[in-house]
Design a protein that fits this description.
Elements: E1 2-5, H1 17-28, E2 37-40, E3 46-54, E4 63-65, E5 69-77, E6 79-86, E7 94-97, E8 102-105, E9 110-115, E10 118-122, E11 126-132, E12 139-148
Antiparallel strand pairs: 1-10, 2-3, 3-12, 4-8, 5-10, 5-12, 6-9, 6-11, 7-8
């Protein structure tokens, strides 16, 4: 997992070509002009889901992880917390769904706070739970980039 401010994006652009394209997209996009919803950048190899929602209190929610995609989550407006832990062989509570590329875990986790202008990158070994409130539910606008690990 990587957590940083968009001003430091150049530190991470050599990790994967799709991550570089996602970070460049963040730097060049006026999100006020982007409609909510899914936007293809390179078909199923790289796309972004721009969404707005209220953060939620944790109450029996499960953490997720992916196999086919890396998540790059960028906070456009607002602040949220995310639960994170490493996948170290734990058995999922919900087995892998290949169609939607996720599995769910019921594990202990640490909390990170992600503010406006920050991004988090979650790799397949990063089990995560986004959208958590920092207190009372608050409005967040977030761009979630899905970066295919192996281009097809």
């Amino acid at each position: 997992m990587i957590l940083d401010k968009i001003e430091n994006a150049n530190l991470y652009k050599g990790i994967h070509p799709g991550i570089e394209k996602a970070l460049n997209y963040i730097e060049k996009t006026n999100f006020n002009d982007l409609p909510m919803g899914k936007h293809e950048i390179e078909g199923h190899n790289l796309f972004v889901i721009f969404k707005e929602y209220l953060t939620k209190k944790v109450g029996g929610d499960l953490l997720e992880s992916h196999r086919e995609y890396i998540d790059v989550q960028y906070i456009v407006e607002g602040v949220e917390q995310m639960g994170v832990t490493m996948h170290t062989g734990q058995a999922p509570k919900k087995e892998y769904d290949a169609v939607d590329d996720y599995m769910l875990f019921d594990e202990r986790y640490d909390i990170i706070t992600v503010n406006k202008g920050m991004f988090a990158i979650f790799f397949p070994d990063d089990i995560h739970m986004p959208d958590i409130t920092t207190g009372e539910p608050s409005n967040v606008k977030k761009a979630v980039f899905k970066v295919k690990i192996q281009h097809s």
